[in-house]
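All the exercises in this workshop are built on plain-text protein records. Sequence and backbone structure share a record, each on its own labelled line. The question running through the whole workshop is how a given chain folds. The record below serves as our worked example for the rest of this section.
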Amino acid sequence: MQDKEILLMTHIVLGYPSFDANRKIVAQMVENGVDCIEMQIPFSEPMADGPVILKANQDSLAAGTRVADCIEFGREMAATHDIPFLFMTYYNILFKYGEEKFFDDCSKAGIQGLIIPDLPPEMGRDFLQLAKSRQVAPIFIFAPTSTPQRMAYLGKTGDGFIYCVARRGVTGKKSEFGEDFSSYLATCRKSTTLPIAVGFGIQDSEDVAALKGKADIAVIGSQTIRLVDEKGVDAVGPFIAGLRQRPATPQKELR
């Protein structure tokens, strides 16, 4: 597996800094070799997210972003770009919107996967049934605190890929990749037949290179948002282009 090219997944917060900016950011990401994009529907209490993404959520909500706006934007992106698009959000968004309507609208929009960090599968039986019937992959999360038994259960329950959290805590802080991390990823690999994505603290080309041969997908989140805040939208393309020597062939289907 060491010679296998690692895929890139990026993260944006919808409506931040604006939907027009989101369009430009997505276009630059796709043009520079991103294989999959995770679009976060903003929520007032994003418990898994650090200060950079938290602020982006709050600013987007303050600007009036609605769930319907996000789904329509997802439809536009899926129709425009030939890579998979996912939604990431928190369960209260689905609950208030209506689970069945949410999945129906995601399916019609061409959204291929859904990450809900605060919804364990035991509490989401309707969620799993809707995901299967609407062909929207339910993506679950491994963490360093997960037992092998828990990983095995999540690995069999989820679809698309498994999101492996690189470390304890929230998004944004740079991760370290020592022996403990390698052992953790080896356990993740043994626990599922699905591809493995690694996120939380992946910030530069060295981090991506460190994951090659250990994971299938590197996830870049807070760093891109931080870059837009500091240098503007036009800085995204060169940053993405520098994350690996050459872009991998996009994989259209998650399911």
Observations:
- The first helix runs from residue 19 to 31.
- The chain has a mean pLDDT of 89.
